[in-house]
Amino acid sequence: MTASSSVPVDALQGLRDLLSTPKRLALVTHYNPDGDAIGSSLGLMHVLRAAGHRAQVLLPNSAPAFLRWMPGYDEAMAGDTKRDQCISAIREADAVICLDFNRRDRVGALEEALRAAPFTVLIDHHQEPEDFAAIPFSDPSACSTSQMVHDIVEAMGWAERIGPEAAACLYTGIVTDSGSFRFGSTTPHTMRVAARLMERGVRITDVHEAIADDNRPDRLRLLGFTLTERMVVLPELATAIISLSLDDLKRFNYQQGDTEGFVNYGLSMRGIRLAALFIERPDLVKVSLRSKGQLPVDGLVRDHFNGGGHRNAAGGQAKETLADAVTRFRTLLPDFIAQHP
Ligand SMILES: [Mn+2]
Fold first, then answer.
1. Which residues surround ligand 1, an ion (CB under 5 A)?
2. Could you tell me the distance, in angstroms and rounded to a whole number, from the CA of residue 125 to the centre of ligand 1?
3. Cα 138 to ligand 1 centroid, rounded to whole Å
4. pLDDT confidence of 3, banded at 50, 70, 90?
5. Of the CATH numbers 3.90.1640.10, 3.40.250.10, 3.90.79.10, 3.20.110.10, which one belongs to the domain with range 9-212?
6. What distance in angstroms lies between residue 145's CA and the mean position of ligand 1's atoms?
7. What distance in angstroms lies between residue 186's CA and the mean position of ligand 1's atoms?
8. Span from the CA of 180 to the centroid of ligand 1 (angstroms)
9. In this predicted structure, what is the pLDDT of residue 5?
10. Positions of CATH 3.90.1640.10 in the chain
């Protein structure tokens, strides 16, 4: 292990004890799993299997299409199609490993089973973890859970067990959560981990093509429409706001994952420090905020939009109409921006 990765000794010893004999393990990640959720889970699954354990990945719901190529995805079970089997897998597991989330209400229909699980391990990089895991690995400074999985595997002395499939999964998680190595959480250590994963056999052009070059015409047209018709730029507040209604999405034959990354276009404009994306769902409005520098959007989301995240990337929800949610956000903006010049 390098000096710049910090795997806590107590948790590591706990994990060593747990895995000293073959175990049946359920690997659970969060609802609407992203590249890091799926990458860290499948990556760890491959390594655990190589170490002689039984490991089953459980997703609260299916992955967006652009992540389904990941090695081992076909063996994962999703709670939206196989709920009872997922719950049985949690019940029958010797331990449940929770990846890329830190509150048990993040796993949708699997929450009750997870709460009843007698032994849990947490591997996660979000702020303010709920205190529930017997073995907690929590590092909010890590760029991704996938990087943490790499570091834990290495600290276990299992680096040789990372094959090309695990490497591809972990690399994908790091790339997607670090914005392709550009967010502030990207460190020299992140680059070293990426280099090691290349040495373990990941073909990075394949990964980047699979992630980035998977658009359908409808999705690109929705993006064009969104930027032309549904983006408001407030230069005096260094903010861009995008809002999309159910009708907008329907017009472009929306599929899950289509609006992934849209919020970042707001942030790509010169002079913009804060980008917001409001998306109408049948039962609520989904809110995503992204920021640059010291602007702490996680606090804003926690206080006003029932969610959380990281300083520069946070997500939550609103119960009012789309228009009301945007209006409320715009009302909060001047003070928020003034407090963080
Ligand atoms: Mn993550």
1. 36, 100, 145, 177
2. 6
3. 12
4. very low
5. 3.90.1640.10
6. 5
7. 13
8. 13
9. 66
10. 9-212
pLDDT the model gives residue 128: 86
CA-to-CA separations, 106 to 78, 124, 190, in angstroms, rounded = 14, 13, 26
Q: How far is the CA of 218 from the centre of ligand 1 (A)?
A: 27
161 CA to centre of ligand 1 in angstroms: 22
CA of 311 to the centre of ligand 1 (A): 13
CA of 43 to the centre of ligand 1 (A): 13
pLDDT tens for each residue of 37-72: 999 999 999 999 999 999 999 999 999 888 999 999
> Domain 217-339, what fold?
Diaminopimelate Epimerase; Chain A, domain 1 (3.10.310)
pTM: 0.84
